[in-house]
Write a structure and sequence with these properties.
15 helices; 17 strands; binds magnesium ion; binds adenosine-5'-diphosphate
């Protein structure tokens, strides 16, 4: 394994979030009765002509701008000819020689903790095309059916350079791209419904070799877990083949999640097999500079810009900033919590922001991870406002960290029990609970001092040990005072007072 290098390039089909199809007025809504959303154009009835959906083009422009690519002022729709039952026209309208988006790149955060690193993956191109229909092989009494609702749904096919070197990098790429298309609002990213699917091109080569090995393309991976499993299996399979003296044939393969294996679907077709030619029914797509500028003005802050802002405004490390900006929702949540954590009129400084950052990373993201991959990132058990209020009371010293964590966990569980239909706690509830449950931290120096005195008087052995140089005895005394205060004494004050008394 060690002398092999893995090379991966990914093609992604992102379904564009338009109301109607790319060349017809039929609806793109998911889940309708079969064939109720297929117009004459989608069915390829004689005499119909396609009309390009302006919204789909705008989505492509947005994407191009978001990745720093060139948005082509002229691109051309071509016919990709092949026969398949779910393709009534006998060709798919796609872009071949002149795609709408050229170049660009995406910065990924790969790995965790100490092993985390950044990586830039270059994009080759992104082009507009239409989706095909769907063959249904189940539940038809031994026959297959065709549902053409999806035919003509607008897709952006996004092609990366073969820049990834591990399945972890491939997953990081797919996740970043997924977060990006949702961020700029061009795709809902719903992987179960097929709105975002990846094809992984995988090859291996001996380390140090300049040329790439022969690739096999794993089609239609619709979850990050399958993407990783499929690549890991495929890499091992290719290495075995080569080590046993066989050659890899270029091929298209399918991943079977049941047994975790890839298997051959067809040997690889070449572009010329499709007899591409410019679609005579569609004019070249001309995009003016003015239109591109208009779209740019309409776009909000991009992921990388927000990440850099988190670093500079809040003094966060690059790693923490990318964790907190892993997608649009989490970044908004974090910023909302920071603002809510500020006392009236307080300015945003790194201190409260870092405080909130630690809480979002250690508590909120941890809770979301426990929920698993399918948990929507906008479903928070504790709202940003509530968390902010909790943090404010904590910073003010009204409650201690232990109490704050307990309230947080309690609120989250309440929301979970309610299937996240609402949040478990509200800002007002926090003060009520602090009052009614007597959760207030004891910060009154006099009160703490008398507890300290009691503990010192009752534990002469610990005091003697400390005086004899045993640091541990000090912790035991702190523990005694906290216990006497039922966990509610301000720990910093307890420490300071104890030190004073013992050393003074
Ligand atoms: P096609 O459209 O026929 O699948 P492309 O040349 O457009 O072929 O490449 C498709 C994808 O395959 C791209 O993402 C590219 O980065 C990737 N790719 C090309 N060569 C290799 C290789 N040797 N190993 C892994 N990926 C590759
Ligand atoms: Mg391909």
């Amino acid at each position: 394994m060690n002398q092999w290098e893995v090379v991966i390039g990914i093609e992604t089909h992102a379904q564009l979030a338009t109301v109607s199809k790319i060349f017809s007025g039929a609806s793109t809504a998911f889940g309708a009765e079969p064939n109720t959303q297929a117009s004459a154009v989608d069915l390829a009835l004689p005499g119909v002509l396609p009309v390009l959906n302006k919204k789909a083009v705008e989505c492509a422009i947005r994407f191009g701008l978001a990745i720093g690519a060139e948005v082509a002022q002229k691109s051309v729709f071509a016919r990709k000819n092949y026969f398949y039952p779910d393709l009534p026209k006998g060709y798919q309208i796609s872009q071949m020689d002149l795609p709408v988006v050229v170049g660009g790149d995406i910065t990924l955060q790969v790995g965790q903790g100490d092993k985390a690193y950044e990586k830039v993956v270059r994009l080759t191109r992104a082009h507009l095309e239409e989706d095909a229909g769907k063959s249904l092989h189940e539940d038809f009494h031994g026959k297959s059916g065709i549902d053409l609702n999806r035919a003509g749904t607008p897709l952006l096919e996004i092609v990366s350079e073969p820049d990834m070197r591990s399945s972890d990098e491939a997953v990081a790429y797919a996740k970043s791209l997924h977060a990006l298309v949702r961020w700029i609002g061009i795709c809902d990213g719903n992987m179960q419904e097929g709105s975002f699917r990846c094809d992984a091109n995988v090859s291996v080569r001996p380390k140090g070799q300049a040329e790439y090995g022969t690739r096999r393309e794993i089609k239609n991976l619709n979850s990050f877990r399958f993407l990783k499993e499929a690549i890991d299996f495929e890499v091992q399979w290719q290495i075995n083949e080569i080590e046993e003296g066989r050659r890899i044939q270029q091929a298209t393969v399918l991943f079977d999640p049941e047994n975790g294996e890839t298997r051959m679907m067809r040997s690889k077709e070449d572009a010329h097999d499709y007899r591409y030619f410019p679609d005579p029914d569609l004019l070249p797509l001309i995009i003016s500079r003015e239109w591109i500028d208009e779209v740019r003005e309409d776009m909000w802050e991009l992921p990388n810009d927000r990440k850099l802002r988190f670093q500079s405004d809040f003094g966060l490390s690059s790693y923490d900033a990318s964790l907190l900006n892993i997608n649009f929702d989490i970044g908004n949540y974090f910023e909302g919590a920071v603002l809510a954590a500020l006392a009236n009129g307080e300015r945003i400084e790194p201190e409260p922001a870092k405080f909130a950052a630690n809480w979002v990373i250690n508590e909120v993201l941890a809770k979301m991870n426990q929920e698993g991959e399918g948990h929507p990132t906008w479903k928070f058990g504790v709202s940003a406002e509530t968390l902010g209020c909790l943090l404010r009371r904590l910073r003010e010293g009204v409650i201690g960290a232990k109490t704050a964590k307990e309230l947080f966990a309690e609120f989250w569980e309440e929301a979970r029990a309610n299937n996240y239909a609402s949040h478990g706690g509200y800002p007002e509830k926090i003060d009520e609970l602090i009052e009614s449950r007597g959760l207030k931290q004891i910060s009154d120096t006099g009160a703490i001092e008398s507890l300290v005195d009691e503990v010192l008087a009752a534990n002469p052995a610990n005091v003697a040990e400390f005086k004899a140089g045993k640091e541990k005895a000090f912790n035991a005394l702190v523990g005694q005072v906290m216990k006497a205060a039922k966990g509610k004494a301000n720990p910093q004050q307890v420490n300071d007072l104890l030190k004073q008394k013992l050393e003074g």
